[in-house]
Amino acid sequence: MKNCLILLVSITTLVNLPGLNLAQNSALFSRKVGQYTVTTLTESQGQGNKSLLIGTTPEILERYAPEGTFPNATHAYLVQSQGRNVLIDAGMGKLTTNLEAAKIKPEQIDGILLTHCHGDHIGGMMKNETAVFPNAHVYLSQKEYEYWKTSTRGDQARKVFEAYKDRLHIFEPATLGGSADPIIPGLKAFAAYGHTPGHIVYLLESGPEKLLIWGDLTHAMAVQMPCPQVALTYDVDPSEAIKSRKAVLEYVVKNKLPVAGMHIPLNGMGKVENDPATGGYRFTAF
Hints:
This protein is of the alpha/beta class. The chain has one domain: Metallo-beta-lactamase, Chain A. The protein contains 7 helices and 19 strands. The protein has helices at 58-64, 95-101, 119-122, 142-150, 155-163, 221-224, 238-255; strands at residues 3-6, 20-21, 28-33, 36-49, 53-54, 69-81, 84-88, 111-113, 126-127, 130-131, 137-141, 168-171, 187-191, 200-206, 209-213, 231-232, 259-260, 269-275, 280-285. A hairpin with a 4-residue loop joins strand 18 and strand 19. It is globular and about 50 Å long.
């Protein structure tokens, strides 16, 4: 499978940490999944502070975050096939710039599938109180929609709901591992609640080839791969987020599914394997 790599910015190579194998890569990275092309639309690369972690121990921090930080990133994804352009999440500021680099105009986006409604996932959908994507249908889980409709922190989400109300599709995701009908051709949605009450993951399928786009299942790969029991202060329900993370990691390893995540450093895509040395998991970037 050939990868198309387009260099947009220079990124300093990040230090390899146990549980996280990183390779030098770029801000706009594409990979074929059967008939689909999936492109990482990177908005940021940086470091998260250990103060964001819940459930660590001094030993975990010393081993997996020895400098008191961990590599992270923020991405959205563009899924293309036969003239159809679909976004998985919408970033928070650089989305239109990244789409221009991919030679896509906002009016060419047909759909936006949201994993959840935090600002770094819906921020790119509005500009000056107006919908950025005039032709895009928006897809969101029922629980996520209901949560943000009444949340005291839901002003941004409610503005998105209103701006896209004529093209907003609310649905019930399937249970991971169960049967599911595609939300749109090629993409199925599965519940992975916890980070937010209606957080979901999307499975892209094209013949035998697959890719699980897992949204915010992880934020601190260097720590949460070997220690999936570690949560983040961003999690609305940390215990449920841990439960979902463990279930999804077990599922992708069992089914040998490549993955993509919104906060996986560098190009955001790779494979997950069991790591007998830690009792957790190991991620290797493509």
